[in-house]
Design a protein that fits this description.
It is a single chain. The chain has 478 residues and is mainly α. It has a domain at 2-17 and 25-142: Serine Threonine Protein Phosphatase 5, Tetratricopeptide repeat (Alpha Horseshoe). It contains 26 helices and no strands. Helix 13 (212-225) packs antiparallel against helix 14 (231-242). The protein is globular. Mean pLDDT is 91; it is low at 1-24.
Length: 478
Amino acid sequence: MQKLTITMLLLGLFCLSGICQTSGKRMLISTSSDKAREIFLQARDLKENIEYVPGDKLLRQAIELDPDFALAHLYLNTADEVKKAMDLLRYVTPGEAFLIRCADAAFKADQKHTVIYADSLVGLYPDDPTVLFFAGTNVVVIDKVKGLKYLDKAIAVNPDFAAAYNIRAYYYMYDGNEEMAGKIFRKYLDLRPKSGNGLDSYGDFLQMTGKYPEAIDAYRKAYQFEPTLSASLLKIGWSYMRNGEFNLARESFTVYQQKALSDYERLDALTSQAFVSYVEGNIKRAFTDLEVMKKMAVELKSPWYILYESLYKGFMLMETGNPAGAVQAFTTARDLVPTLAFNSDQVDFARIYSQGFLSMALGFNGKSDEAQKELAVAKQIFDKKPRGQASTNFMNLYQGLLELNRKNYQKAIEWMEPGALLENEVNQYYTGMAYDKSGNTKKAIEFYTKANRSLGTNYTAIYLNKTAKRIKELKTSN
């Protein structure tokens, strides 16, 4: 790598003297092996298009050819590999350094530096669609307007850059622009007609717009094209569940469990069985399903899923009119956290998460002072270090819920709506409730609809029936 290091030094000197012109050019990729670079380009394309398993396989091949290939390590996207990429910064160009530092900041939930490094990267290569895509996908969850601007420019620079269409289409869908979302999803599928992910994404569009049989067909074809897309099997089950075909949903989740590629997916399949029972209205069976899931989680030593058993029971009790039972379940979750094998970052988030929702349940029980006390503990943990967007959304949600229970609806909306606009379905549901209680029917329907149409997550299932019922009531009353 010494020869490459000298080359990078000369490049830096050229840039300082004004000889290096980057505008309008593509970012260089530093490696001692031309073959490794060729493999990396194939892998990057797969990873950008959510085809992770074949992409990771190629990245490992590139690293075998050049163990010091920084970007190949980075795109494997694990904590250890991102650290390796950071350790190899001395071998890369200034642009690659910005890209690596941006990814490292995003991995550490450092939102400020994620945006700074993304902007710096785009400043060096403003017309490189891959750079614009990378910056856009990292920034859009922090600054939606700027992130979408980068993605739109990636498409403008290269109208055949498929990956940008995929992400952009989801945001059109989230914004309620179904016509444009469908057009862009179909464009993505046209650009990658044999891509499992293209069919999976189009299936998502069909599911979100209530075309469940068509969605199921798209997901089946996606899995046939790419058997590593086991999530498509999960989505088949969700489509059946949304369509009220509960037995077929259970059968689909059983197939998903059998075909699962990881312990996470096996546990996710069992959790999904519980939510089928919940949506069907059989909470007793849902609790039994969660207990089966927890038993496997204990065997697999999975702390999050052990915790989820109590948390999900809390949500189910809350939304079926038993807030006192929810307090008990969330208290169990809070007290369970210190006994589980979380790392330091995970234990903080688990404590914020469980204490925040305990605060929610206490508030809905009319115990505002106790709710404030629990939230203060969560806030103290949250403030210890920079947090990612997910933690920020939930922390704002908990603050908003306190105001909601105090009937301070406008303050509640101010806390919760930013997270709702960033596609957090819990924020969407309660933002809808705050608008509903304040008498703003139009905005209530808007946010209830967002929560109802959110892609299959356990939170979506929690609110699926209630949002559908309330949307119907509000539309009828108007």
